[in-house]
Design a protein that fits this description.
Blueprint (H helix, E strand, L loop, with lengths): L1 E4 L4 H12 L5 E5 L9 E3 L18 E4 L12 H24 L4 E5 L24 H20 L2 E7 L1 E3 L5 H12 L2 E5 L7 E3 H13 L7 E5 L7 H12 L4 E5 L1 H8 L3 H10 L8 H6 L11
Parallel strand pairs: 1-2, 1-4, 2-3, 4-5, 5-6, 6-10, 7-9, 8-11
Helix pairs in contact: 1-5, 2-3, 4-6, 4-8
Length: 301
């Protein structure tokens, strides 16, 4: 039996659908609120240090922990820090401890490239030093470290995936903001310096998760970056979004410091600047060596 947390979220819902379609019918969908459209839906309420997982974990051998707090513009407030750690760290600790009590064999954790920071020169790989720059990244890294330590002590197998900014149908947060902007306004700025940004196709991520579920021994006790094979510039991303939407939005190059100054006037677009206009790329050689999934880049289609 497989338990997917955050099963009504952008990623979790697609994981449940794919696992169910691939004839693994024994899947439970854990959500905060009722979602009767999901198979074997179990309502667990808020995820924190007090969540009761006992009913959801009955008969479960594998957990895919997709649930987490991520999409919040103000990452710097003490309130935001508490919310990130309540869900992403303490919620994970609680789930893993109860998983151990209920005989779960394998814990698959969906972390984030944000444990590495906000930007980079050379691409990160799994051997690079983590350096989170916001409370979200710190909370995900704290959860990763607990998982490794706890699983080793209690002989539970784990797999940690670090996707980059995820894109695909029904995407939310910053890429939805970009999508809406290109649909609604007549022009949109890129900039003259070509940055390098890794993105993660949600379908590739879902297939990777399914591989781990199907052949778990190949992925035990490892960390993997999951991303498209080739990083993109902001202009690549904007051109692709424009193409998908059939938009006539005009893309024009802008001087980088001036663009940051202009976007900095609003919190939402200041967040978008960091997510799309700076460089943050990863090396996926390790993932390509073990996964059968192809991590194709959208500009190669």
């Amino acid at each position: 039996m497989i338990l997917v947390t955050g099963a009504n979220g952008f990623l979790g819902k697609k994981v449940v659908e794919h696992v169910y379609q691939e004839s693994i019918k024994l899947v439970k969908s854990a959500t905060r609120n009722p979602c009767p459209e999901l198979p074997n839906n179990i309502v667990i309420g808020p995820i924190d240090s007090k969540t009761n997982w006992s009913f959801a974990l009955q008969g479960v051998q594998t957990i895919v922990h997709c649930a987490g707090r991520a999409h919040q513009i103000d990452n710097d407030s003490l309130e935001a820090k508490k919310e990130f750690f309540d869900t992403n760290y303490h919620g994970t600790v609680r789930l893993l401890q109860e998983a151990n009590s209920n005989g779960v064999d394998h814990f698959i954790y969906i972390s984030s490239v944000k444990v590495m920071g906000d930007s980079c020169g050379l691409p990160f790989d799994e051997g690079s030093k983590e350096n989170p720059r916001d409370y979200y990244g710190e909370s995900k890294l704290a959860a990763e470290e607990f998982i490794k330590s706890y699983c080793q002590k209690n002989e539970i197998s784990y797999t940690i995936l670090r996707p980059c900014l995820i894109y695909g149908n029904d995407v939310k947060a910053n890429l939805k903001l970009l999508n809406d902007a290109i649909l609604k306004i007549p022009f949109f700025p890129t900039f003259c310096d070509r940055n390098s940004r890794s993105l993660t196709n949600v379908n590739s991520l879902v297939k990777s998760i399914y591989e781990i579920i199907s052949e778990p021994e190949d992925f035990y006790n490892n960390v993997y970056f999951i991303a498209d094979e080739t990083p993109y510039s902001t202009k690549d991303i904007c051109e692709y979004v424009r193409f998908l939407n059939g938009s006539n939005c005009y893309l024009f190059d802008f001087i980088n410091p001036m663009l940051k100054f202009v976007l900095g006037f609003t919190k939402s677009y200041n967040s978008l600047y960091g997510k799309l206009y700076e460089s943050l790329s990863v090396d996926i050689k390790k993932s390509k060596s073990v996964f059968k999934t192809e991590f194709k880049s959208f500009k190669h289609k």
